[in-house]
Amino acid sequence: MKASRNALYGGLLLLPAAVLLWTFTYQPIVTTFIDSLYSTPRGRRPAAFIGFDQYETMFADPVFWKAMLNNFIYAFATIPLSMAMALAMALLVNSKLRGQAAVRMAYFTPTILPMVAVANIWLFFYAPDYGLVDRVLQLFGLGGQNFLGQPDTALAALIVITIWKEAGFFMIFYLAALQQISPTLMEAASLEGASFWQTLRRVTIPLLMPTTLFISVNAVIGAFRLVDHIVVMTKGAPDNATTLLLFYIYQVGFGYWDTGYAAALTMVLLVILAVIALVQFGYVDKRIHYR
Amino acid sequence: MNADFRSHPVAALTTFAGWFLAVLWVSPLLYAVWTAFHPAAYGARFDLFMPLTLENFVRVWNAAPFARYFLNTFALVTVTLVCQFIVCTMAAYAFVCFPFRGSNVLFMLVLVQLMIMPEVLLVENYRTLSRIGLLDTIVGIAMPYLASAFGIFLFRQTFKSIPKELEEAARLEGANGLQVLVRVFVPIAKPTYIAYGLVTVSYHWNNFLWPLVVTNSVETRPITVGLQVFATIEQGVDWSLITAATLLSVAPLLVAFLLFQRQFVQSFMRAGIR
Predict the structure, then answer these.
(1) What are the pLDDT digits (tens) for B210-234?
(2) Which domain holds residue B9?
(3) Is B91 in the A-facing interface, judged by CB distances under 8 Å?
(4) How many CB atoms lie within 10 A of CB A283?
(5) Chain A: residue nearest B123 by CA?
(6) Helix, strand, coil % (nearest 5) of chain B?
(7) Which residues in chain B have Cβ-Cβ distances shorter than 8 Å to A86?
(8) Is the ipTM of this complex over 0.95?
(9) Measured between beta carbons, which residues in chain B are less than 8 angstroms from residue A99?
(10) Is residue A9, in this structure, part of any structural domain at all?
(11) Number of folded domains that form chain B
């Protein structure tokens, strides 16, 4: 009796969420896979079943490999650097510092700005001749650099921006975790005569491990999901040096309107995200049990 | 103060490092502010006594329909927030109070959306939207985000922590299921609603790629897309106009952040830790 009542009420309450999730998350995953097996319909020529041809094209496409390589370089550069920066910021803000609130605000402000605005601010900041970066370099006689225009510096220039935007966000989580650490542990460490670095390495960082894991999962997803700055700043140029996977999907899907190929590319992104999800679910489960 | 610094060299060093990093961190923003408030003719020079001006902002405001863009963003954020509150509250309530066989599996399926956000599937979602005729509408931009896995997860956690006795007491006084939800669960979960609200407002205020794909007209474009349309035309031509437009578009959120800084930071913390 109660079970059937629960199923009825529960089902009704879940209905809107279920319909929306099906329409915009599950159904598109299924149709992405199906579409990736068909050619892109053009004009009067309808889509034809072509098996794994799109994937063969993909594996032979140098731009795809370039986008993958760029995305992994981007992820493996931004994630550790922004996390190290975040930890340093959290330690600074958590110590006895004059004007703590102002400093914390300075670190956190980039986080709440839209990536589009950040990209425009940095476009100017990097601009040859006009930007502050170039002006400082001019003082050393190194002016006239177009960081976003050169293949060997463009991706690094974007990595710097991402670190700038993300570090303050991650700092918040480290700060919360630092404030949970019992002061007696720190006192014990200092009574034992441990130096600052020893305490950091032996006490603080191990205790922050769950936070570090949580942040890194978020950071990995972000590295594959956020490409607003690419659209605004470089559009993948120069010579695909800044093409990331989702940007390439956007370009193929809405620039060349090759939806079949875009579907195959999306499948790759879905597989990458699924792998990250599996790693995280193992970890989230553990957290829920401990609670 | 000097004596204080001499006796605590470490504290002095931390303060110096903290402030150095802080200045470095805000410098791109300050440089943009500096440029936006000065006449374009002075753009290439540094002079502390250059005349300040609001002219760049006036020109930007007149050059593009920014008022309309703000209105669109405001509508988008409101629709998204209200619908997310309703849809996610209902779902979370079902998971906590009406568990049935398989509802745990359903919950796991909901969590998939935490990893695969709607913008990742933008090609297919664009097609779905065009099939149901919602391209270039504000509802269309909001739609894929309404059943937010993050919201459901957050509300479920909060509802679970509410003591059963409170629910039973309300039942004894004759409250039905809806009344229990509205009078007991939602008021207790208020801090969670505020936290989730701030996170979702800043997310959708800042969202760009999906609205860029879906919108095609002044009547629907949110401020992020509007800024990009404006900047594409002006790019490399007049930096003082672009920086003015950029600052203009972030101003409301930035002011709100500066006023409610503590709530913002605590909300992000709360939303992240759960």
Answers:
(1) 999 999 999 999 999 999 999 887 6
(2) 2-59
(3) yes
(4) 13
(5) A253
(6) 80, 0, 20
(7) none
(8) no
(9) 15, 19
(10) no
(11) 2
